[in-house]
Amino acid sequence: MSLLCVPVLLGVICVVWLFAVKLADFDKIHSLLSPDLTVSLADQLRRRALANVRLKNAFQINSTFVEGDVAGHSAFVRNAIQLISPRKTPLCRLAEVAKQTAEMYIEDAIPFDTAVRRTVMRVILVGMLSDFVDESTISAGDIDLVTRGINELWTLSKSSVYRPDLLTAINSCLRRWLPTYANPLEIIIPTYETMWRVVAIAVALAHDNRHALSVFTRLLQQPTHEQYREVNDGDRYSADNFMQEILRLYPPTRRISRVVPVSNVPIFGILFPQLFTRNFMIAADVEALQRDSVWGNSRGEFDPVRHQPQRCTEQQSNTLLAFGTGKLACVAKNWAPQVAAIIAAAFLEQVGQERDLVVEAGKTIGGREGWEGWSVRKNPERLPVPVGE
């Protein structure tokens, strides 16, 4: 716990404490993210917005993730549901764009995370936002600027350091790509920022795993909801099992935070909230919960088979909160893993021992950062043999 601010109000020195509390207990996490009816939707939105104020400042956005407006939240949810609907964005369309993009952007001597970020960003732009995007303005160089810039701004925001110059450069590209959006980052951040990291981990874990490669090959051949969940003859698990295990072991949002006001003197807390209210920054430790002992001694190991219905218990399933829970749970929680799997499958189609390119693995699996040593390079087994040898 830490004292973060000591403001002076009404000529009286009053201490407003902002305590940091981390939760790993299921019941407490559920109460935080899905509170009872005494906590209105407006209050839940405000709690989330206060926890995300650093992102509002870093990216100069006013989306539902950083604002407490109920009407704005409802509009965002409606638009998101429409955008990811099968009629608007069919999986077969995304698969075609993903294959085309992977062929375009995956090349020799490119950092692995750069290749993934390029691929995911273009799939989102051309596959999801095709009605709004000017495809002719998209280049790999601009994608690199935008994706690296988003990474840097996100990381700097954790220490309240801001880069207006970098934000201007990012927005210049985005507004050229999406000229009808007033603030394109408000749609790009929720669709891209989590997706690319899930795709990167999927490729990193599957590129040298013959069981996984078989599963992803089938999915790319038949990109449907049914195939995503199907365990075919000879396969040990489905694409869904594989993606759920990624989300369990490597949740893209490791902690989900809310700022909750608490008064030790309820009556005075109502009358003088600035004087008698303490704000608690409470973080649901999703990563710890999803590695709870309920998953057994192998909880730290990657094992997609554990998510098959006959093996996964209700108690285990209840701990899977990578997309949150309650009224503010991610509206794309069922859709996003399928799309990530399809993009990963398209990437994997371009690399491997039977291909001209391979993934060179680093020492550890990364996240937003930490991909040092990972790259895409030419397959040494398929290099032409010099004449005379």
Overall body shape: globular
Please state how the strands of the largest beta sheet are arranged side by side: 3-6-5
Report mean pLDDT, rounded to a whole number.
91
SS class: mainly alpha
The ordered string of helix (H) and strand (E) elements is EEEHHHHHEHHHHHHHHEHHEHHHEE
What is the name of the CATH class? Mainly Alpha
- Structure annotation, total helices: 18
Pfam families: p450
Protein name: Cytochrome P450
GO molecular function: heme binding; iron ion binding; monooxygenase activity; oxidoreductase activity, acting on paired donors, with incorporation or reduction of molecular oxygen
Q: How would you explain this protein's 3D organization?
A:
This protein has 389 residues and is mainly alpha-helical. The chain has one domain: Cytochrome p450, CATH 1.10.630. It has 18 helices and 8 strands. It has helices spanning 26-33, 41-51, 53-59, 70-83, 91-105, 112-128, 140-157, 164-177, 185-193, 195-206, 210-221, 225-229, 239-249, 266-271, 273-276, 286-290, 314-318, 336-349, and strands at residues 8-9, 12-13, 18-23, 110-111, 255-263, 277-285, 357-360, 375-378. Strands 3-6-5 form a 3-stranded mixed sheet. Strands 4-8-7 form a 3-stranded antiparallel sheet. Strands 1-2 form a two-stranded antiparallel ribbon. α5 (91-105) runs parallel beside α18 and α10 packs across α18. The termini are far apart.
